[in-house]
Amino acid sequence: MSGLNKLYNQQKALLSGREYIGIDNIDGPIIMVRNTHPVGYRDLVECVDAGGRVRMGIVLDTSVDAVAVQIFEGTSGLTLPGTRIRFRGEPLTIDVTERMLGRVFNGLGKPIDGGPVPLGSAEMDVNGLPINPTERIYPRDFIQTGISAIDGINTLIRGQKLPIFSGNGLPHNQLAAQIARQAKIRGEASDFAVVFAAMGVKHDVARYFIDSFEESGVLENVALFLSLADDPSIERTLTPRTALTLAEHLAYTCGKHVLFIMTDMANYCESLREISTLRGEIPSRKGYPGYLYSDLAELYERSGMIRGKSGSITQLPILTMPNDDISHPIPDLTGYITEGQIVFDRDLHSRGIYPPVAGLPSLSRLMKDGIGEGMTRGDHPHLASQLFASYSYVQDVRSLASVIGEEELTSFDKQYMEFGQEFEQKFINQRRDEDRTIEQTLEIGWHCLSILPPEELTRLTEEEIDTYYGR
Amino acid sequence: MKERLIGRVRRVNGPVIEAEGITDAMMLELVRVSDARLIGEIVKLSTGKAIIQVYEDTTGVAPGNNIYGAGMPLSVELGPGLIGTIYDGIQRPLEDLAAISGTFIQRGIQAPSLNRDKKWEFTPTPHLAVGEKVTPGSILGTVQETERIEHRILIPPGGAGSGTIAWTHGVITEIAPAGTYTVDEILASIQPLDAGTEGQSITAAMAQRWPIRTPRPVAQRLSPGIPLITGQRVIDTLFPLAKGGTVAIPGGFGTGKTMTQHAIAKWCDADIIVYIGCGERGNEMTDVLTEFPRLIDPRTGTSLMERTVLIANTSNMPVSAREASIYTGATLAEYYRDQGYHVAVMADSTSRWAEALRELSGRMEEMPAEEGFPAYLPTRVAEFYERAGYMQTLAGSEGSMSIIGAVSPPGGDFSEPVTQHTKRFVRCFWGLDQLTGQCPPTRPPSGWTVIRNILRMSKPGGTNGPVTAGSRTGRRS
User: Fold this and answer.
1) Chain A residues with beta carbon closer than 8 angstroms to that of B10
2) H/E run at residue B447
3) With an 8 Å Cβ cutoff, are A64 and B13 in contact?
4) Which one of B283, B287, B316 has the shortest CB-CB distance to A298?
5) Contact A89, A43 (CB under 8 A)
6) Average pLDDT over chain A, rounded to whole?
7) Which H or E element spans position B259?
8) B52, B45, B55: which is closest to B88 by C-alpha?
9) CB contact residues (below 8 A), chain A span 328-347, against chain B
10) What pLDDT, on a 0 to 100 scale, did the predictor assign at position A281?
11) What whole-number distance in Å separates Cα of residue A224 and Cα of residue A107?
12) Measured between beta carbons, which residues in chain B are less than 8 angstroms from residue A162?
């Protein structure tokens, strides 16, 4: 039996050099080739058009009769008889190296900044492999972003995946760039890198990030993977995988702390839906494929800290919620996979508050283990809990005020209204270049809480109130 | 049974493979695909053809690749050494996999579920001797598995899967004396006395196999009468759960399903916890792995890991293994139930399992029912929850398996199919609400317990101590 297999493998190796002239069917980015030798699932395909341009693709479906191939650069200009196909007999890999930092690539990992192709130091499968849960280290290191709305009440932890749920026209890019500029681990000069994957975003957004990295002088530590709005949509399904492959190399081989920013997840999911529809798959919610959850998980789970490795990947995916709807499948499934979410609120934005982080729906699941004595400050967990509880009551008071009028509120409720104002204007609101230390953040938090009578602060201990209240 | 060539790959579509040239395969048979030896299972059979669900990434599998049949259904290995181990969805020990392939789980790697070299101290049941009559499922002897768990070695019930004989009574022809043995060493031989079993014999070792999709047999089902004390005030007071009961915990993301499950896994008064992380976050499993060994069980003073089996099939691990993980967990739990223990199964999250069903069904091009879910979703949900119960075991003692399943409704909408069908088949429902901001965030109006009226709080004056099986006087069903 093994002899037969060996023979089969030899045959396969020979066949991988074979070229087929002519294809049978083109449907959007998917082409069909009939009467081929046995082709492996997800194998790499080279597709040469009549003009000699080589495009990359992967096998989506393979059977004895026909092979379906998804072409990443799009199929425009391909002809049925004039297209030549080569099956490479290996999965899609990219050459990754530390030297990719400071460079700009397309979604397939080819340089587009005019420079030479960097000499790779490792060839890695872009699909990655699942991390063994026993090999993970539970993330605990506090990252100071200098942004009160994050550090104070939705703390980012090294190795966490914390998405920004935003809407069109909201300043999510500014916030992501600010985090990339300011993020640091206190008392530690760490070896850091930023990997940035843009999927279907506009040119000016990409420009904004490049300029922002340049201004803060970190550009040589940033690798950009750009698949912009006018690039073939199919390329977007590969962009985050290529970028993550580099991020994994930097983190787990080179020992760097990688901040991974990807934008915009909504565009990525739409590309997936496009392919799924073309393939005639049974849709689940809103036409998105049933495997959207698994597919997103394949991306988001490629983060974290690993035993015995000094590097880490912290993910900051950005997604614009279609119609600001948090129950839309994309934010919904993302929320089930990621460790919390930073949710933007259009109302806060229209009142001029930056960053417009909605207090209640935002959450950091890893916060509980990364703050407190020895990590930030002893009163931090209780203070965050108290701010959340009091701000939650403010929402009740506001809805009451919208019915009976603010004048009719009790003086007690008016204090809460005042607290809400102060919390939004002083605590959440900050300048776009303001880098607050965690102590400053906590101080502002106490300043806001001091508006309320101390007996209302039920989540803080008496010692904490004695030490910090009203100072 | 020896592995044999049963056919070739015809088509590959994600985790679903169409095979041709199939000669003697059986339904739900365990198979290995291509040279990479990817583990799969036959889910459909027709003349000469089969559909195979593969539990690993199928990248590189090509038409014409060989398919080998294992001659038995997808099974788990049962025996001492399960407790404290972390497995993936098809019972591969993750720590051993890490020793083989490092940080990342490579494809096609294998490791035995139970440690082959470790020797266990075996004490035979006193009255057993050659010539003694025994029945399937009776206790052959004991092994101290952890400080607190006495592992009872059961005579394999048989009758499930090919190669095993169905028998109802037999006589011991050989039995090993007290001593140390590995899990593979044969401890006893039994001559069945049923008609048609002449000349055949049953051998019992510490390790036995059981197919995951077949519930293990019991003597009879009893009606659940003792509460499972969860240690959560709002639950124990208002919506108590019986030992052998089933509960669904639905809630949108961030409402605290996992936190509630963790809390119950830590402090409930079950003897054994089987925690299934089905399609959830890798870091959550790491949290359990780092936290449980450090926590001390107030009832026994030993580490919580001493009573816990973990099954981790995180969201980025193959989708078909996610589908299997629920059954793997249930089978391990049933095995301990058959030894006379009260087992609580935490399934987090059953929605991910249902979505895995949907994904596989879509790949098999089946006609969808609601929201793309297959029409057999309610059947599968019912089958899973019905494996729970308060049972009289074949050995004559009483044991229970309770299922605490988290449900993650998309958009927090409880009218979606998984929540709706789960509600039909569970006995308790703990609706979580984000606004309560308490832990656990159960909101009283959205929870219910059907069996509340038949539960008796059998330990007056406190809920700290374990409620023993002897204190139950429930009606027989």
Assistant:
1) 63-64
2) strand B442-449
3) no
4) B316
5) yes
6) 90
7) helix B257-267
8) B55
9) 328-329, 332-333, 335-337, 339-341
10) 82
11) 9
12) none
Mean pLDDT of B237-259: 84
Strand, helix or coil for residue A281: coil
For residue A18, give the nearest of A94, A72, A89, A90 by alpha carbon.
A89
Using CB atoms and an 8 Å cut-off, which of residues 142-181 of chain B contact chain A? Answer: none
Per-residue pLDDT tens digits for B406-452 = 998 887 788 889 999 998 888 888 877 654 444 444 444 455 554 43
End-to-end CA distance of chain B: 39
Average pLDDT of span B292-299:
84
Backbone φ and ψ of A334, nearest 5°: -60, -45
Closest-CA residue to B64 (of B24, B107, B35, B30): B35
Map out the domains of chain A with their CATH numbers: 2-91 (2.40.30.20), 94-369 (3.40.50.12240), 380-468 (no CATH)
Q: Which H or E element spans position B203?
A: strand B202-205
Task: Dump pLDDT digits (tens) for B346-395.
Answer: 998 899 999 889 888 888 888 888 888 999 999 999 999 999 999 999 98
Q: What is the mean pLDDT of residues A60-78?
A: 89
Task: Judge residue B108's burial from the number of C-beta atoms within 10 Å of its C-beta, 0-12 exposed, 13-18 middle, 19 or more buried.
Answer: middle
Amino acid present at B278:
C
Task: Identify the pLDDT of residue B468.
Answer: 33
A425: left (phi over 0), alpha (psi -120 to 50) or beta: alpha
Two tokens, residue A418: 């005042």
A201-247 pLDDT, tens per residue? Answer: 899 999 999 999 998 888 889 999 999 998 888 889 899 999 999 99
- Token pair in block for residue B124: 């035979």
Looking at residue B215, what is its pLDDT? Answer: 92
Q: Is B62's CB within 8 Å of A64's CB?
A: no
Q: 3-state class of A305 per DSSP? A: strand
Q: Is this model's pTM higher than 0.80 or not?
A: yes
